[in-house]
Amino acid sequence: xxxxxxxGEKVKILIIGGVAxxxxxxxxxxxxxxxxxxxLLTKSKDISYAGCGLPYYVGKVxxxxxxxxxxxxxxxxxxxxxxxITETEATKxxxxxxxVTARDLKTNEVRTYRYDKxxxxxxxxxxxxxxxxxxxxxxxxxxxxDDAASIRAFVxxxxxxxxxxxxxxxxxxxxxxxxxxxxxxxxxxxMAEHIPPGFDKDFAEAIENRLAEQGIVAFTGTxxxxxxxxxxxxxxxxxxxxxxxxxxxxxxxxxxxxxxLDGSGIELMPDKTVKxxxxxxxxxEDIYAVGDCASVLNKITKKPVWSPMGSTANIAGRIAAKNMxxxxxxxxxxxxxxxIKLPGFNAxxxxxxxxxxxxxxxxxxSVVAVTDDKAHYYPDSSVFIVKMTADRSTxxxxxxxxxxxxxxxxxxxxxxxxxxxxxxxxxxxxxxxAYAPPFSTAIHPFSHTxxxxxxxxxxxxxxxxxxxxxxxxxxxxxxxxxSRKPSIDGAIYVDLGTVNxxxxxxxxxxxxxxxxxKGKRAYMLQRRLKNFGYKHTLVLEGGTTFxxxxx
Length: 551
Known about the structure:
Blueprint: E1 3-5, E2 8-10, E3 12-16, H1 21-32, E4 37-41, E5 48-49, H2 54-58, E6 69-71, H3 73-80, E7 83-85, E8 88-94, E9 99-104, E10 110-114, E11 117-120, E12 124-126, E13 139-141, H4 145-156, E14 162-166, H5 170-181, E15 185-189, H6 201-213, E16 216-219, E17 224-228, E18 235-238, E19 242-244, E20 247-250, E21 254-256, E22 287-289, E23 296-297, E24 304-305, H7 310-324, E25 338-342, E26 345-351, H8 354-359, E27 364-372, E28 383-391, E29 397-404, H9 408-420, H10 425-428, H11 445-458, E30 463-464, H12 466-470, E31 478-481, E32 492-493, E33 512-515, H13 520-531, E34 537-540, H14 543-546
Parallel strand pairs: 3-4, 3-11, 4-7, 11-22, 13-20, 14-15, 14-20, 15-16, 30-34, 31-32, 31-33, 33-34
Antiparallel strand pairs: 1-2, 5-6, 8-9, 9-10, 12-21, 17-18, 18-19, 23-24, 25-26, 26-29, 27-28, 28-29
Helix pairs in contact: 1-7
């Protein structure tokens, strides 16, 4: 029954789960309609913590554990008016009766909670690989503040000199970066062919190489078989080698916390996330699901995907709350936007990779560009290495990947905005983006990349991509060094400024691969050579910054 108040019927809303999604729904509901009776059940003692900040607490970038706690149950209740019940685990949902059965973890008492509307925000838990030794001392997960505190205490004990991180996703690489910064030798193993996920092979290999240069060796295509030791972890056994270690951190993935929904009739996806519609409703209109336990739609492909990200949880939670009080706001979907801080460089991505775009049926075309990240004369200037992908026929922008020491997030976010708005390169090539020497270049690096992509699509720039170059597409081409000064051993050097006609010793019918440091001078040389009748020239995208060129 709905409780009667002086203002009318009081809707009873029950939320299962806290952290990002659950607390966002709860807080937004009370802001939109304080008259709602909102109760939040959570299995944890903590109602809301900064899960994405855990690696940085281990690395002492965040000094105090209390900084990870966004709200205590008491402070959240006072701030929002939400009734918070902690250390209580939901065990069954009964959609027909509109009840949830839950167990008090302190007393083991079983209680029944009634609702008019229900939100499932139970998140996900770390997956425990079924191998020997996961229960040994010095084997850690990284999912909660307690996990992070345990790792940090062990680091501070001084007993740890080398660590094996199992899992090369964002969480695994972030903890690897933080441990490496503390002077600990870190190795990463992962079953995938390349890490991290969400990047094309060429960019993933570039990330792996840069990690190795900074002392973090990634063993990809490698399966964990056992963790060995008497009482504590001493070695890691893989299908390829045995590695000595002082600790193991398992970041092998997560699984949605949805087991308690068995028999409820609530529809799940094959990956056991809750299936929702565009309004974040389950197959029961009064039951919603948000956060790491639920699926969402991909903005571009319109297909269901799992996006266990704090950003997704907060956005979906806010929309769900509005819809629960009578709105009909569709969640437009995710682009898989992500950024990561790595030792000595950063990486970002959004939208579809070239490979994903092709699999989705697009006529995908990509370009790899090397651009200045700010005015070249400004102290600490560096470069962005960018891969931009579009649909050749419609010219719709589909995705972007970027590496660099600087603010790669701004490149990623501009691309995410353009993709969200369905922009084509022509729509965005002349955007009025911010410029000052400490921040950018006069033609913004994003716009510069757009111009290069348009040149390629329109035929003004003829190239071989890094992937094609690695596969031998330029076999039989004579390598021409078009850098400012000779930089490729054994290659013919051509100074762009001296080319005013046919180049002695180079026939106009020869196949020429033009290479410079970034690609710009090679492109300018190609344009000039075309003017003088050279018909078979290709520019190596990314130049020697991104490719290893050996004559």
